Amino acid sequence: MKRTSVIRNSCAFSAIAAVIVWSCNTATNAREQAPVPAAPAAVLLHVDTTAIPDDKYGEAVRYGRALMLNTAYYIGPDGTSGKYLGNRMNCTNCHQDAGTKPFSFNLMLSHENYPQYRAREGQVLTLAERVNNCVTRPHNGRPLPLNSKEMVAFLAYFRWINSFVPKTQPHKGSKNLPVTFPDIAASPVRGEALYQQHCARCHGNSGEGQLRPDNITYTYPPLWGKYGYQPGSSMHRIIKQAQWLKANMPYDKATWNRPFLSDAEAMDIAAFVNDDSRHPRPDIKNYDYPHPAEKAIDYDKGPYADTFPATQHKYGPYLPITDYYEKRGMKASY
Ligand code: HEC
Ligand code: HEC
To answer: Pfam families, from UniProt (predicted)?
Structure first.
């Protein structure tokens, strides 16, 4: 069955220039609808990689895209362009389709969103510095020089994909899929059973993933252990990971418009994957967030600007925490 045909309500794709418009009519009878002015439909973006220009800029864009897809080959532990990463994962393992897939830590807006204030550093960062955050963790590496061919290529690529974002219309999938917080804490124990059922066949019983036969990178990337992402990277946060799992995993079953896991299941699995007592990771030296009130509520290292223990920040229940922030007029970020 085609993916578009199983969606509730009547929905239709129509291609307009480089943009695909996703329009849904949820009413059974259009005449019953109140005559409110229609909000512009959110569009699904399509990046046409055959349109990368054939000039020096295009060369940088093309290399940037190659770096997103084959990061370990170029800048991994045995990288042909320099040894920067501490592990063999690729950017696209999390920013799928080289950062263009909706609801997969999508990077279509990054070019226009930086420089930006970042709570983790308590500073305004450039996009290049933000790229290096992911190079240093989750990739456990050392930062790329800001004027390196590789950094310039990443930035050229982000600028180029951003040119597909329409200026006057909203689009889908640059933010994460929201998850509804259950009343109870996420449980690594329930998560373990779900992991065995839905994840282990690709990522392995010990979360080690599966290396490609050439050993350069993975067919299935690792989820924990020496070669997985580090604590202090956003994937290590349970809400953040659950949002991503809901739209993207299991790889062969979930799509953003037809998630496979329920919100509670995604949180339980994320709790199991991120249970450091059973799944140690390479440690990091500093735990960031100079201003505790700006700390993401699912960050598992104190100090916090509230009275909740670190275990509740990590596993929930999160609703008492968001209520606490709301009552004091503070912003709960996650
Ligand atoms: C283990 C998963 C993972 C890998 C691998 C990864 N990232 Fe990220 N990256 C994230 C997460 C999580 C975020 C934050 C997303 C959010 O807050 O919703 C992020 C954010 C970013 C951002 C900021 C986006 C924005 O608009 O604010 C950039 C740029 C970025 N990553 C680039 C890279 C690059 C380049 C690589 C490869 C060198 C990479 N990432 C590898 C997980 C990953
Ligand atoms: C059919 C195989 C398959 C299954 C089943 C599967 N994954 Fe994945 N997973 C992948 C692949 C492939 C990628 C890398 C995606 C890419 O590069 O585009 C990935 C990436 C990931 C990542 C981000 C990269 C990293 O290693 O940190 C996480 C986290 C993840 N999967 C968790 C899960 C969880 C949890 C489940 C079970 C709910 C699951 N996966 C089920 C194939 C699978």
So the answer is: Cytochrom_C, SoxA-TsdA_cyt-c
